[in-house]
Design a protein that fits this description.
alpha/beta, eight-stranded mixed barrel, 21% strand, globular, binds guanosine-5'-monophosphate, binds manganese (II) ion
Length: 276
């Protein structure tokens, strides 16, 4: 049974609905970038592009408020293509070893030829495919298994990294891990946030880390907010981590500074546990 989320329920009546159509044309969308740190190398490996809407009268609107509306109205197709191209163009100017991660919603994959959209973004910006990561949730896979699978495999064979986002929430079924070419699993932040206090979270974090390793996929822990949760995901063998402990999402001009800060924050792993 399909139950609409609070965001989707309000979409029909939201005053933002009509304005969203013009947000791309009026140049009101911006991307911020949230670093993802390689825990073995001790430095940033990629940056996740996150959309923000710089609304002329309402100020900065977070994606949780407008993405559901954009999906309902299908404006996400246009906005998502814009985000993909913008993110690739920004990444082209970063150091070669840094990848860019872009979220794709189910509607984007359903409503347009996403392979074509991705190829156009890469061609237009000159970014090599192996510097692009696409983050998708299980919802993407639920809708049209075969066609989606074919498109993802085609992108994967070009060198694009496909990451399973928000793992552990949604409609998690382990079957998806068997049938799709995921290179990474990103554990949802709800499990990571409560690690120090809640024993069950740590158990899940550890098990998902083991699962990824056994499947030859890389593991990413999202929502690392404290030195204690960084230490825990590191001890659990995670390959990568993301969270406010390292840095908040930042505009493109602040990316270099954020990457340096992440490197410094890694130092906590080399100091005695009693200091935090
Ligand atoms: O409010 P918050 O920043 O937590 O919301 C982030 C959510 O919005 C993420 O789950 C992400 O999937 C979605 N999102 C952010 N930027 C984009 C984008 O460029 N394209 C798509 N499709 N989704 C995005
Ligand atoms: O659904 P998706 O994973 O794409 O959503 C990513 C969202 O999660 C982004 O908005 C990102 O900024 C947020 N996020 C990542 N790490 C943390 C964290 O440590 N704390 C909080 N509150 N949000 C985080
Ligand atoms: Mn994501």
């Amino acid at each position: 049974m399909y139950t609409p989320s609070a965001g989707e329920r309000s979409a029909a009546t939201s005053p933002l609905k009509g304005e969203l159509l013009h947000a791309v044309e009026r140049d009101e969308l911006v991307l911020h970038y949230h670093p993802i740190v390689d825990l073995r190398e001790g430095k940033v490996s990629s940056l996740e592009a996150l959309m923000r809407w710089k609304h002329p009268s309402r100020g900065m609107i977070p994606p949780s408020e407008f993405i559901p509306i954009a999906e309902e109205t299908r404006h996400i197709v246009r906005m998502g293509s814009w985000a993909l191209t913008r993110a690739c163009a920004d990444a082209k100017k970063w150091p070669d070893e840094i990848k860019v991660s872009v979220n794709l919603s189910a509607v984007q994959i359903e409503c347009c030829d996403i392979y074509d959209v991705v190829m156009k973004a890469l061609e237009k910006t000159g970014l090599p495919p192996d510097r692009l990561q696409l983050e998708i949730t299980e919802t993407v896979l639920m809708r049209d298994h075969e066609q989606t699978q074919a498109v993802l495999k085609k992108l994967h064979s070009l060198g694009v990294t496909i990451t399973l986002d928000d793992f552990g929430t949604c409609f998690a079924t382990l079957n998806y891990l068997r049938s799709f070419p995921f290179k990474k699993i990103k554990l949802d932040r709800s499990f990571v946030r409560d690690i120090p206090e809640q024993h069950d979270c740590l158990a899940i974090v550890k098990s998902v880390g083991d699962l990824a390793r056994e499947l030859n996929m890389r593991s990413v822990a999202e929502g690392v907010e404290t030195a204690a949760s960084l230490a825990a995901v590191h001890a659990a063998g995670y390959d990568e981590a993301q969270g406010f402990y390292f840095s908040p999402p930042v505009p493109n001009r602040a990316v270099e500074r954020a990457m340096n800060q992440c490197k410094q924050r890694m130092a906590v792993l080399n100091t005695p546990a009693t200091s935090w």
